[in-house]
Design a protein that fits this description.
The termini are far apart. Helices cover 9% and strands 34% of the residues. With 199 residues, the chain is mainly β.
């Protein structure tokens, strides 16, 4: 509790209450700053040492779920900040040691299918379109910056860094830095020199 010295009196009590609630409802996690909105929690896995900010929202849509797997799987020692929204119809997998900043959106869902050659009726409102899904994989030690958006069908490789406000619409290789909308790789890690290099 020594870290509490940097907080105001109110925030000290808030952290203490959240720590107690976290241990009661999610004994494997380190700290959840409530409120936390979990929809269909039986299909969501929170790993050991998980930490999140307040007003995060995790929603699993169960109707198309393979019962053997969790729809949302969050690995061990994952840290995320406030207002993170994760939505999954089939699969969103987040590895170990991932760092997620505030206001990040991650989803495997689209209202309709936008792949070339697939039928789509433009006269049907988006909320009435049939849901489509492509799995999202965020591998170990990834860092997602503030307000990043990760779209369906994307894999972000191990150790990658995604810059603030980027939109990830295609796969990002391991050990790279990607920024922009759509996110593009601008640097890669040179393991021999132990340095980042421009692409």
């Amino acid at each position: 509790m020594s870290k509490l010295t940097k907080y105001s009196f109110y925030h000290k009590w808030y952290i203490i209450v959240c720590t107690i609630l976290s241990r009661v409802f999610y004994p494997q996690v380190r700290l959840i700053r409530f409120p936390l909105d979990i929809r269909n929690g039986k299909n969501i896995r929170l790993g050991k040492g998980f930490t999140c900010g307040h007003k995060c929202r995790f929603e699993s849509l169960p109707e198309r779920l393979d019962k053997k797997e969790k729809t949302i799987s969050i690995g061990d020692n994952v840290e995320m900040n406030d207002f993170v929204h994760i939505a999954a119809l089939k699969k969103v997998s987040i590895g170990n040691g991932v760092l997620i900043a505030s206001k990040v959106f991650i989803s495997d869902i689209n209202h309709g299918s936008f792949d070339e050659g697939n039928d789509y009726d433009i006269n049907v409102p988006p909320q009435q379109q049939a849901l489509s899904s492509k799995a999202v994989f965020i591998e170990d030690n990834v860092w997602l910056g503030e307000s990043v958006c990760v779209l369906s069908g994307v894999t972000i490789g191990k150790g990658a860094i995604i810059g603030a406000q980027s939109v990830v619409s295609k796969d990002i290789p391991a050990h790279t830095i990607a920024v922009g909308s759509p996110a593009k790789v601008i640097k890669k890690y040179n393991s021999e020199k132990m340095q980042w290099e421009r692409v």
